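(Deposited chain)
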Amino acid sequence: MKSIVIGICAAFFFAFTFVLNASMELSGGSWIWSASLRYIFMVPFLLGIVIMRKNLRPLWNEMRKQPGKWILWSFVGFGLFYAPLCFASAYSPGWLIAGTWQITIISGALLAPLFFETIHTKNGTLQIRGKIPFRGLIMSMIILLGIVLMQLEHAKQLSLENVLLGVVPILIASFAYPLGNRKMMDVCEGRLDAYQRVLGMTLASLPFWLLLSFYGLFTVGLPSRGQSIQSLLVALSSGIIATVLFFMATDMVRGNMQKLAAVEATQSMEVVFALVGELLFLSIPLPTPISWVGIFIVILGMILHSYVSNKRVESYLNQSVNIN
């Protein structure tokens, strides 16, 4: 339950991404700078935190062991996650991006067979290939049903082109984020804490963000002062606070695909938080009654997803103990 609560807190701070990116787009800012500035601004803050905790040398030693894996999976987990997310903000409103992003709940579950689960028994530990948690997947579908209801009225007002340019990049991001995060957990094997892992992935993905910045410099020019400030806020809220909280939650259930899927399901709360943020700061219209029903279904689906996932894990462990 503790990991679930931390996951919900992460969702709250992640929601700032959708609200502030929508605000930057409305003020004429480019998605290129929205994406790259976030990770560039994250470096000094994370570096200071890790240095104060006297954990920089262990991180450096880990990165030197497998630099290729760090660069690859950091690019997948951060680059292929956030750049498409910001690109989508140029074609779709924040509420639609936040809603579509919840497909990551299903994406994360479908990735389970690519990883191994750690099962603890009285005779030791077992490594078995992960299986798609179909019961949890059903609960995820309930969450997505709620999201569809929330966004149904708004989606009717969008053109097909805007839907495709806004949805397809998010579909890519929805697989990239859990894939990169899980692969890096496998690489680290619990030897690094959340702050170290976020800093390491940020540094390893930095070449991509610098290249994107140079591209933006020659195509759209320098970012405005307002976009720089809002990107800094995104870096602090979503890039540091939310990411560290989310990584802490996933580290707590590392090696257990069912519980990991439950933690990732908490990110459905981003839709609720983003909706409230847009109502307060961007003055979007109030949701329709159908949308409020959708909000309730999202919350109910998240609770059911967590319950079913935990019950399945307990049942599996009991069977393992009886066999041994």
